[in-house]
Amino acid sequence: MVAKALLFRLCVVLLALSSNDAYSQQVYVAFLHPLNFFESWQECNINGGYLASIESPAEQTQVEKAMAKARNQTAVYYVGGTAIGRDGRWMWIGLNKEFAHRGYRNFYHDELNNISRGQNCLTVGNWDKPNRDLIMAVKFILLTVCVAFFAINGIEGATVPRTKYLAVLQPSTFFEAWQECNSKNGHLASIESRQEQLLVEEAMSKTRNPTAVYFIGGTDLGRRGRWVWIGLNQALEDGTYTNFYPGEPNNLGGDQDCLSIGNWQGYSRGKWDDTECFKKLDGYICAFRA
């Protein structure tokens, strides 16, 4: 599996200024605790945030200030950038957003080099270089730090956007599907209600393969048994809608960390199942704002 580097994490907190204010303040916090990329992503989500993006010099400065407050001045931190699923196409996992084409960058001079391949996650910190704030891509086990955002949404009265779903018949792994949906200006589908479930089933019924199995956006990578919708950075909490086949998720074989939906042995077309993230399924379900 990719991204096995153990890193500490640095969190960014979004504090709402008031319960009805549309503005928020970003506060970055460093956590010195060894984690890999997906463990960091899960921990940030557990704490109400997401693995950090850095999209401007101002955000870069805030990250550097947070690192300066940590007791380990030589630590390296994960940030939320990853190219898992499509080499060279970098996304901020916490925002479900591709790096802006001409957006802010702060890579070390010979990065991104993907040395020895598999370097699909980004870090920021001190790599035995004078500049501790420069970004590199890593996959190896290191004592480093990840970056997270705590997000507290104080905006009230927002309407929930309508969603449409598209079933795509294209053999893909989970992260290839995640990248493809994003490249189409959508996200790998979440299913949070019976109504959304029916819309997904309708999308599947329109394809030419009635027995296909598709990836949807749930994964427990980083924290076994804690499922998160990757496109929303939102956990499946107790009491929320689920539609697992009886006995699922069972983590058969110990490596079933991503969710699928489809026709299992000719029945239960709309039921969910856990499956291997890097196995190619028949396709995937994308969600779009209607």
UniProtKB/TrEMBL annotation:
The protein's name in its UniProt record: C-type lectin domain-containing protein
CDD domains (alphabetical): CLECT
PROSITE patterns registered for this protein in UniProt: C_TYPE_LECTIN_1, C_TYPE_LECTIN_2
Keyword line: Disulfide bond
Record bears the keyword Translocase: no
Signal peptide boundaries: none
Gene3D superfamilies in the cross-refs: Mannose-Binding Protein A, subunit A
InterPro entries per UniProt: C-type_lectin-like, C-type_lectin-like/link_sf, C-type_lectin/snaclec_domain, C-type_lectin_CS, CTDL_fold
Species the sequence originates in: Anopheles arabiensis
Source taxon at top rank: Eukaryota
Domain called C-type lectin: residue spans: 23-128, 165-277
Record bears the keyword Nucleotide-binding: no
